[in-house]
């Protein structure tokens, strides 16, 4: 359940230019965020993770949620800065509270795994729900798993199938595999071997070994 992603891939920064640098140096938070993206990717400038962190920090301190999300990822992974889990949690929380769906998913993963913060499935579910409602496939998967197992929420297989389906339709292999299992066993949904095979196949095509094994077992019946 622990899958961290903090890079604002869907956020298109304004193009790199001397004007952008000037705006960033003058304190424009969005320009600072954008400049950090360019230093991180090496687009338009020499790739430099430390410079990326520098500009994201300036932007994050002014409240930019995207910069806060990316800064959290840098601290969790030790990219461009000394690894610091407390700082990661701090920045992801600030970003998540502003509604950033990537930070919400990442924060949910921290609470769900219990590797860095005290495990708290209710807190994990809270953040995964907010992220899942904004369409993040990994959060939808994790939320579905929580409903499937009854972790942090009352067990509800129908609700599990709902979120697993949303994630599976976005191509998440793990969600596809578990959704196949739900259809195979009639868990939270009417038993349907064709649907089970369909989702197992989609998952297997992405290399999921559990799905490959499930298909073989169905064929042998």
Please identify the structural class as seen in this structure: mainly alpha
The CATH class of the domain at 1-119 turns out to be Mainly Alpha
* Percent of residues in beta strands: under 5%
Please tell me how large the radius of gyration is. 20 Å
SS summary, helix count: 12
Q: Portion of residues in helices?
A: 55-70%
Summarize the biggest pleated sheet: none
Assign the CATH architecture of the domain at 1-119: Alpha Horseshoe
How is this structure best described in words?
With 221 residues, the protein is mostly helical. It has a domain at 1-119: Tetratricopeptide repeat domain (Serine Threonine Protein Phosphatase 5, Tetratricopeptide repeat, Alpha Horseshoe), CATH 1.25.40. It has twelve helices and no strands. The chain has helices spanning 18-25, 29-41, 49-61, 65-77, 85-97, 101-113, 121-132, 137-149, 157-169, 173-185, 193-204, 209-220. The chain is elongated. Mean pLDDT is 92; it is low at 1-10.
């Amino acid at each position: 359940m622990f899958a961290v992603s903090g890079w604002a891939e869907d956020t298109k920064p304004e193009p790199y230019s001397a004007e952008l640098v000037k705006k960033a140096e003058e304190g424009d938070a969005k320009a600072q965020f954008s400049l950090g993206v360019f230093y991180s990717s090496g687009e338009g400038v020499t790739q430099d993770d430390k410079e990326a962190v520098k500009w994201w920090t300036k932007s994050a301190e002014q409240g930019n949620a995207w910069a806060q999300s990316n800064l959290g990822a840098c601290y969790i992974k030790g990219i461009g800065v000394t690894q610091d889990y407390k700082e990661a949690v701090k920045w992801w929380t600030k970003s998540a509270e502003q509604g950033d769906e990537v930070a919400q998913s990442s924060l949910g993963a921290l609470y769900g795994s219990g590797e860095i913060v005290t495990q708290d499935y209710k807190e994990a579910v809270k953040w995964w729900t907010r992220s899942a409602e904004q369409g993040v496939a990994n959060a939808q998967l994790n939320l579905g798993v929580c409903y499937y197992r009854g972790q942090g929420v009352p067990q509800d297989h129908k609700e599990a199938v709902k979120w697993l389906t949303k994630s599976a339709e976005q191509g998440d292999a793990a969600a596809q595999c578990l959704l196949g299992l739900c259809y195979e066993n009639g868990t939270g949904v009417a038993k349907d071997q064709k649907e089970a095979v369909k989702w197992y196949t989609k998952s297997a095509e992405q290399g999921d070994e559990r799905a490959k094994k499930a298909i073989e077992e169905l064929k042998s019946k």
